[in-house]
Amino acid sequence: MNDLVSIITPNLNGEHFVERAYQSISSQTHTNWEWIVIDDFSLDQGERVAKLQSQDPRVKLIKLSINQGASVARNTGLDNAIGNYIAFLDMDDYWLPEKLEDCLTFMKRESVNFVYTNYRKYLTTTQQLSVPIQTPKKVTYTDLLKTCSICTSTVVISKGLIGNTRMAVSLRRGQDYFFWLQILARMDGAWRCTEKPMTLYSIGHLSLSSNKLRKALGQWKIYREYLKLGLLPSLYYFMNYAYHGYLKYKKF
Fold it and tell me: For 85-122, how does the pLDDT look when each residue is reduced to its tens digit (9 = 90+)?
């Protein structure tokens, strides 16, 4: 039980990704896991997840009675997780088979509680893969204010470190980013556990164009309203965010 990993996946009308996500998890070389799928009142009713649950007791389906967003879904997963480690996998993302094993091995060897990996982006419309996204060896709270180097589906984190911290339900965008900031504010930093890109991160065309402005506005809101930073620090970190964002996404 000490090595049990609770994998949390919010689902909203993602039936066509379920089999691939399950394959990604069931192919892991670390087999001591539970997959908690929180169905956020999907129109497709999560039937494929329910079928998998009947075949594999490690799969757990939780259905929400109304649509409440990714924050509530992930928080529900955290509230129901029984593993000592927490991992997040969005339904349209994918792990390489050694992902969990590499993360846990590093965490035990280095006595750290928060790790992430490099990843590759892929376009869902064309299946085009990006070059590997190289993340820093270590990310501190101040580093994260400048740019979000941590992709949610790459994270493994000790449940004890999370404690009662939950994702802000009032944030419609960047809830995971603010979640990492809350955790890193009380620790030395998070670590990249391997140089290999262990996650494929799905993006669509909307992520490349019309969503950029809304994401930028959401970033500014986090600085000013959620972190209560002054105007000058907010401008400094936002300029860093914009610059690093350009470097990160120019390939697509």
Answer: 999 999 999 999 999 999 999 999 999 999 999 999 98
Separation of CA 198 from chain center? 13
What fold does the segment set 5-249 form as a domain?
Spore Coat Polysaccharide Biosynthesis Protein SpsA; Chain A (3.90.550)
From CA 89, how far away is CA 155, in angstroms rounded? 9
Question: Are the beta carbons of 157 and 113 closer than 8 angstroms?
Answer: yes
CB 38 within 8 Å of CB 8: yes
Cα–Cα distance measured from residue 33 to residue 248, given in angstroms and rounded to the nearest whole number = 32
* Lookup: tokens for 246: 């350009």
- Angle between helix 15-26 and helix 47-55 axes, rounded to 10 deg: 30
Mean pLDDT by 10 residues, the chain (252 residues): 91 92 98 97 83 95 93 97 98 96 98 97 80 94 96 97 96 93 97 96 60 87 96 97 77 56
Instruction: Name the residue ranges covered by the structural domains of the chain.
Output: 5-249
Residue 200 and residue 131 in contact, taking contact as beta carbons nearer than 8 Å: no
